[in-house]
Amino acid sequence: MISEDLQSLELCNLQEITIPPRSRLYHLKPIGIGTPYVESLTGYIARLAEEHCLSTGILFLSEIASFLKEGYIFKGKEGGLDQIFANQTKALNGMGKWVINLIKALEALTLCNDLRFMTMLTWGQVLPNRNLLRSVKAWCPNCYEHWRTTNQIVYEPLLWSLNEVNICPHHYLYLCTQCPHCSKENRLLAWRSRPGYCSKCGGWLGSSSNIELVNNVKISQTELNWQTWVTSNLGDLLAATPNLYPPTQEKISQSLSTYVNVFANGNIALFAQKVGMGKVQTHRWCTGKSLPTIDALLLICFQLNISLLDCFTKGENINSISLIIKNQSLPTRKPREPHKQLYTQNEIIHILKTALSTNPPPSLVEITENLGYKKTSILYYHSSDLCKAIKARYTEYKKAEKIKKIQILLEPVIESEEYPPLSMQEVTQQLGISLPSLKKYFPEICRAISERYANYCKEKSNQRVEILTQEIRQVAFKLHSEGIEPTASRISAHLSKPGVILQKKAIAAVQAVRCELGWEK
């Protein structure tokens, strides 16, 4: 009977249970990856700190800093993040070593492997940092209020940190950059950063009012259309980031070269004029010598009626010649006016040669303005050697004039018999010339002024010592005549300035007079 019961029992599985790795911090999932409203990295850090019931600064100092290199370690008390990062917090949502090191640290702490998609790191090869990200925090108060009233997570989308996004695509309102309570701007990451709240005063940044004015400026229809297009294209770019292989710089140059061939039959100057860009700069973009900024790319794509994502992914595959360039004004940039050819090359060279022998020599800017041009680059285009020679000659002329002017101002100071004499600091203040300039051009004169003032100071010091010695002797003789021992403390009580008794000269004078009176050997 017992054997039958034993046979009916199931055997236990004695294999070792595999325990998944545990994260140091909460395994907090980023919001909106693969969508236009993906969370920003700075907002994720602030939300992670809030989940741990810590301030952002404490979380950074106690947990994240130890994973970073020595140059990224944070020090100090409250406000330390502001002191270390200053205006560089915008780089944390962009590209570069700061972002890479920070992502590695956060992934090691949270065991989340997709944090790079909360930054612009994927586009580091095709987008320069200039004009890409904001330096201060921006937000839509209606979005904050809607998320809180509907019990959704309040967070900071990466889209709001992009410099070209100024209007909320959902509520068609300007993004706010100043707290409605304290009127101060917020950095993207500060010691007390908290999603939806001001890092300065702690006030709630959400609002349900339908405000259409920012600084008493109403959103125009042109601005609204442009911002809607910009926000849609940048949102599509962020949404496609996790599914794309990072594009290269050659991809952009190939795309722009294709657009030039399709829309302007290979004429870069004509293409640049139609899209409102500079001819030289457009040529550098097409040849891969430099990268267009995000605002320039958006303007080009808008004029060509092409999405920004297509420009990065399949721009060189466009083969339709029937596409039309838009001819409508944009609120952000006006097309540049081409230079007018007022003079021939021979005439300009003759004018430059004449200016090179003119006295006093004119500056290159003056020559440019007299010829009716706005920039000196057109003169460099015709003859860079002559322009450099004119600039060097004018620089030497201005230097000589400066030295001559300083010498004229210094002569009365040297010849003056004013007493007390002026110090070098007083001379520089009186003449309005910096001390390094005086020492550089007139070292001997500066040395003479300094020596004369030093002799005056030494003379005044000797006079003060003599007066002090006489006063000590008078007091000592008076005390001696009254039968009182003239000690240093008793003498100091009768001096006009008792504290001077501690000076070396005063101590020596006391010892001398005591020896003279027979109180010391």
UniProtKB/TrEMBL annotation:
<dbReference type="InterPro" id="IPR009492">
    <property type="entry name" value="TniQ"/>
</dbReference>
<protein>
    <submittedName>
        <fullName>TniQ family protein</fullName>
    </submittedName>
</protein>
<dbReference type="Pfam" id="PF06527">
    <property type="entry name" value="TniQ"/>
</dbReference>
<feature type="domain" description="TniQ">
    <location>
        <begin position="30"/>
        <end position="175"/>
    </location>
</feature>
